[in-house]
Design brief:
alpha+beta, Beta-Lactamase, 2 domains, five-stranded antiparallel sheet, 5 strands, globular
């Protein structure tokens, strides 16, 4: 029995109300195809990104862009999973960093639903008592990047050595990589 080797990738682009209004008026009334609407949405997003590596969007067809994007997303996911690395975005509140986003591989690596990890009480309760969460997640105003090592408990009760590396990004945005270290 032949297997279906076609793979699909879903891309989500967030539009504000004004952009939705523009799309509704210009695109749907003029009966534009979905690919044209997606090209408009992607271009609109990339125009707002300073250092985009996909700037030459006009050079490729939408289909080529989606093939490249899908391939790149799959490669990135494979690499992150192989390295046991989770991507995090954190927001600042009272000089503490609070994760507000975990990459999709967080569930497979930690054993917990990534949305449970967004609950600070839940997340902190999994950090070994030898480590102080307030030190791990304290904002370091004078530094652009820093890291902490701590033990994190998986659902079966065993603690694993981890490293979290924070990096200040644009504005008040903080990004991090959280890696489960080899035993």
């Amino acid at each position: 029995m032949p297997t279906n080797t076609k793979k699909r990738t879903q891309v989500s682009v967030s539009l504000d109300e004004q952009e939705k209004s523009v799309l509704t008026k210009q695109s749907f009334r003029q009966n534009r195809s979905v690919s044209q609407i997606m090209r408009f949405a992607i271009k609109k997003y990339l125009d707002g990104v300073e250092n985009s590596y996909m700037k030459p969007i006009e050079e490729d067809s939408v289909e080529q862009i989606f093939l490249k994007l899908g391939s790149q997303l799959a490669k990135n996911a494979d690499i992150l999973f192989a390295l046991k690395t989770i991507l995090i975005e954190a927001k600042v509140q009272n000089d503490q960093l609070f994760p507000c986003y975990f990459s999709d591989n967080a569930t497979a690596i930690t054993g917990y639903d990534k949305y449970d990890l967004l609950d600070p009480t839940f997340f902190i309760s999994r950090i070994h008592s030898d480590h102080k969460p307030e030190d791990i997640f304290r904002l370091k105003v004078q530094e652009d990047c820093w890291e902490h090592y701590f033990k994190f408990k998986k659902p079966h009760g065993e603690y694993f050595d981890t490293r979290i590396s924070f990096q200040k990004s644009e504005g008040e945005r903080f990004l991090a990589t959280w890696q489960f270290l080899p035993s």
